[in-house]
Amino acid sequence: MTSEEVVGTTSLGPDWVVGPDGMRHRRAARVIVLDDAGRALLVRGHDADQPERSWWFTVGGGIDAGETEVDAALRELREEAGLELAREDLEGPVMTRAGIFRFYAETCRQDEIFFVARVPAGHEPSDAGWTDVERDVLDEMRWLSADELRAQPLEVFPTALPDVVEALAGGWDGTVRHLGVEHDDEPSDPEELAGA
Predict the structure, then answer these.
(1) I need a labelling partner for 145 at 20 to 30 A (CA). Which of 35, 59, 74, 121 fits?
(2) Rounded to an integer, what distance in angstroms lies between the CA atom of residue 144 and that of residue 59?
(3) CA atoms within 13 A on the CB side of 75
(4) What are the residue boundaries of the Nudix hydrolase domain, all occurrences included (predicted)?
(5) Is 37 exposed, middle or buried (0-12, 13-18, 19+ CB in 10 A)?
(6) Diameter of the chain by CA atoms?
(7) Assigned domain for 66 exists
(8) Strand partners of residue 110
(9) 1-29 tens-digit pLDDT
(10) Residue 127: partners with Cβ closer than 8 Å, 6 or more residues away
(11) Does any domain span residue 139?
(12) pLDDT tens digits, residue range 69-94?
């Protein structure tokens, strides 16, 4: 068995594999959906193991085996927001980051690539494509401006998202922002983060 094979059972799903550091990880495609008023479509969710903790994040999810990053982004838009878009409707990639966080009582890493999609103001997202797992942990979708994101009492991921939304609202300049590694939720045991 290689270090990339799935070891043991997990509630995270089959696309999460154990890496050499002992942490489950996957690659993900995410989309910053902007309307012509400069607002971003975000999802509010929570961890089933920490239902009292909620946060805002972009539409997106894991890249399936054999799927390109763009194809994954388009599929996630369709499934999570009811948006049917074409490849030419996406800009980017505009940003990358590695998010390390606790979810389903596990510390995991998600290597994310972000695209931008622009839609007219007034688009009503649909949750009709949500899976049972998504219905358990996703609470709502909402259009939020950069200022509304900054004023949110809830966490926003990536943490730079308000500034990124503000910068992208006027158009993308072709720059790919690399946010590096963000620790979205520090584990209670520092050795766990180090893979010890």
Answers:
(1) 74
(2) 13
(3) 12
(4) 24-167
(5) exposed
(6) 51
(7) yes
(8) 26, 99
(9) 333 444 455 666 667 778 888 888 889 99
(10) 80, 82, 134, 135, 138, 141
(11) yes
(12) 999 999 999 999 999 999 999 999 99
